[in-house]
Amino acid sequence: MRRNARTIFILVCLGLIGCFGCFTIWNHYKDNVENDNTCEFTRTYRLLLITPTENEDDFYVTLQNTEGVQTVLVNNEEKLELEEGQIYEFVFRKGNSIIEDTIQSIFDNTDLVEIKKTDCTLEDGINEPICS
Fold first, then answer.
1. Is a pLDDT exceeding 90 seen at residue 10?
2. Phi then psi for 69, rounded to 5 degrees?
3. Could you tell me which residues come within 8 angstroms of residue 62 by beta carbon, excluding any fewer than 6 positions away?
4. Is 91 exposed, middle or buried (0-12, 13-18, 19+ CB in 10 A)?
5. How far apart are CA 6 and CA 129, in angstroms?
6. Which residues pair with 47 in a beta bridge?
7. Which has the higher per-residue pLDDT, 64 or 6?
8. CA–CA separation, 38 vs 53, rounded Å?
9. What is this structure's pTM?
10. What is the DSSP code string of the chain?
11. Which label site among 15, 42, 90, 92 has the fewest CB atoms less than 10 Å from its CB?
Protein backbone atom coordinates (compact mmCIF):
# COMPACT_ATOMS: atom_id res chain seq x y z
CA MET A 1 0.00 0.00 0.00
CA ARG A 2 2.80 2.37 0.91
CA ARG A 3 4.56 1.57 -2.32
CA ASN A 4 1.46 2.51 -4.38
CA ALA A 5 1.03 5.76 -2.45
CA ARG A 6 4.68 6.68 -3.04
CA THR A 7 4.35 5.92 -6.78
CA ILE A 8 1.20 8.01 -7.04
CA PHE A 9 2.88 10.87 -5.15
CA ILE A 10 5.89 10.80 -7.50
CA LEU A 11 3.65 10.73 -10.59
CA VAL A 12 1.60 13.67 -9.31
CA CYS A 13 4.79 15.65 -8.61
CA LEU A 14 6.17 14.89 -12.07
CA GLY A 15 2.85 15.93 -13.62
CA LEU A 16 2.90 19.23 -11.73
CA ILE A 17 6.50 19.89 -12.78
CA GLY A 18 5.57 19.15 -16.39
CA CYS A 19 2.56 21.49 -16.25
CA PHE A 20 4.69 24.25 -14.70
CA GLY A 21 7.30 23.80 -17.44
CA CYS A 22 4.68 24.02 -20.19
CA PHE A 23 3.15 27.10 -18.56
CA THR A 24 6.56 28.81 -18.36
CA ILE A 25 7.38 28.05 -22.00
CA TRP A 26 3.95 29.30 -23.14
CA ASN A 27 4.33 32.59 -21.24
CA HIS A 28 7.80 33.12 -22.70
CA TYR A 29 6.49 32.49 -26.23
CA LYS A 30 3.47 34.77 -25.67
CA ASP A 31 5.69 37.61 -24.35
CA ASN A 32 7.98 37.36 -27.38
CA VAL A 33 5.05 37.53 -29.79
CA GLU A 34 3.52 40.52 -27.97
CA ASN A 35 6.87 42.37 -27.97
CA ASP A 36 7.37 41.93 -31.72
CA ASN A 37 6.77 45.56 -32.62
CA THR A 38 7.80 45.38 -36.25
CA CYS A 39 5.82 47.44 -38.70
CA GLU A 40 6.05 48.47 -42.34
CA PHE A 41 5.81 51.82 -44.06
CA THR A 42 6.20 53.03 -47.66
CA ARG A 43 8.15 55.96 -49.08
CA THR A 44 8.30 57.23 -52.66
CA TYR A 45 11.63 58.28 -54.21
CA ARG A 46 12.94 59.26 -57.63
CA LEU A 47 15.99 57.19 -58.52
CA LEU A 48 18.54 59.68 -59.84
CA LEU A 49 21.70 57.57 -60.11
CA ILE A 50 22.79 53.95 -59.72
CA THR A 51 26.45 53.37 -58.83
CA PRO A 52 27.79 49.81 -58.73
CA THR A 53 30.09 48.62 -55.94
CA GLU A 54 32.83 45.99 -55.93
CA ASN A 55 30.27 43.57 -54.48
CA GLU A 56 27.79 42.61 -57.18
CA ASP A 57 25.07 42.13 -54.54
CA ASP A 58 25.15 45.82 -53.56
CA PHE A 59 24.92 49.18 -55.27
CA TYR A 60 24.59 52.81 -54.31
CA VAL A 61 21.49 54.71 -55.32
CA THR A 62 21.02 58.44 -55.24
CA LEU A 63 17.43 59.09 -54.26
CA GLN A 64 15.31 62.22 -54.27
CA ASN A 65 12.18 62.85 -52.26
CA THR A 66 10.24 66.04 -51.57
CA GLU A 67 12.75 67.00 -48.87
CA GLY A 68 16.08 66.45 -50.60
CA VAL A 69 18.61 64.10 -52.17
CA GLN A 70 20.81 61.43 -50.55
CA THR A 71 22.92 58.49 -51.66
CA VAL A 72 22.46 55.17 -49.85
CA LEU A 73 23.67 51.59 -50.15
CA VAL A 74 21.09 49.03 -51.32
CA ASN A 75 21.44 45.26 -51.20
CA ASN A 76 20.64 43.73 -54.58
CA GLU A 77 20.54 40.01 -53.83
CA GLU A 78 17.26 39.80 -55.75
CA LYS A 79 18.91 41.33 -58.86
CA LEU A 80 16.43 44.17 -59.17
CA GLU A 81 16.08 45.90 -62.52
CA LEU A 82 15.95 49.59 -61.64
CA GLU A 83 16.04 52.53 -64.06
CA GLU A 84 17.51 55.94 -63.41
CA GLY A 85 14.98 58.77 -63.57
CA GLN A 86 12.05 56.55 -62.58
CA ILE A 87 9.94 56.87 -59.44
CA TYR A 88 9.73 53.91 -57.06
CA GLU A 89 7.87 53.01 -53.89
CA PHE A 90 10.17 51.56 -51.23
CA VAL A 91 8.59 49.43 -48.50
CA PHE A 92 10.55 49.29 -45.23
CA ARG A 93 10.20 47.10 -42.15
CA LYS A 94 11.12 48.74 -38.86
CA GLY A 95 11.81 47.10 -35.52
CA ASN A 96 11.78 48.69 -32.07
CA SER A 97 14.46 51.29 -32.79
CA ILE A 98 13.77 55.00 -32.99
CA ILE A 99 15.01 56.49 -36.26
CA GLU A 100 15.31 59.92 -37.78
CA ASP A 101 13.06 60.77 -40.70
CA THR A 102 15.86 61.08 -43.26
CA ILE A 103 16.62 58.91 -46.27
CA GLN A 104 19.98 57.82 -44.81
CA SER A 105 18.58 56.97 -41.38
CA ILE A 106 15.68 55.02 -42.86
CA PHE A 107 17.99 52.90 -45.02
CA ASP A 108 20.49 52.40 -42.17
CA ASN A 109 17.94 51.38 -39.53
CA THR A 110 15.25 49.39 -41.35
CA ASP A 111 14.98 46.37 -43.61
CA LEU A 112 14.13 47.07 -47.23
CA VAL A 113 11.23 44.74 -48.02
CA GLU A 114 10.23 45.72 -51.54
CA ILE A 115 10.90 48.19 -54.35
CA LYS A 116 8.19 48.71 -56.95
CA LYS A 117 7.93 51.12 -59.86
CA THR A 118 5.09 53.63 -59.75
CA ASP A 119 3.51 56.08 -62.18
CA CYS A 120 2.73 58.72 -59.57
CA THR A 121 4.72 61.90 -58.94
CA LEU A 122 6.88 62.46 -55.87
CA GLU A 123 4.24 64.79 -54.46
CA ASP A 124 1.41 62.29 -55.02
CA GLY A 125 3.38 59.20 -54.00
CA ILE A 126 2.95 57.21 -50.82
CA ASN A 127 4.93 58.79 -48.00
CA GLU A 128 3.70 57.14 -44.84
CA PRO A 129 5.02 58.31 -41.49
CA ILE A 130 7.60 56.09 -39.83
CA CYS A 131 5.59 53.72 -37.70
CA SER A 132 6.31 53.39 -34.00
1. no
2. -130, 135
3. 47, 48, 49, 51, 69, 70, 71
4. middle
5. 64
6. 63
7. 64
8. 30
9. 0.70
10. -HHHHHHHHHHHHHHHHHHHHHHHHHHHHHHHHHT---EEEEEEEEEEEEEE-SSTTEEEEEEEETTEEEEEEEE-TT-----TT-EEEEEEEE-S----SSHHHHHHHSEEEEEEE-SS-TTTS--PPPP-
11. 15
Bridge partner list, 89: 44, 116
Order of strands, edge to edge, in the sheet holding 58-65? 68-75, 58-65, 39-52, 87-94, 111-117
Instruction: Quick: pLDDT tens for 24-48.
Output: 665 555 445 445 678 999 999 999 9
Per-residue confidence (pLDDT) for residue 109, from 0 to 100: 94
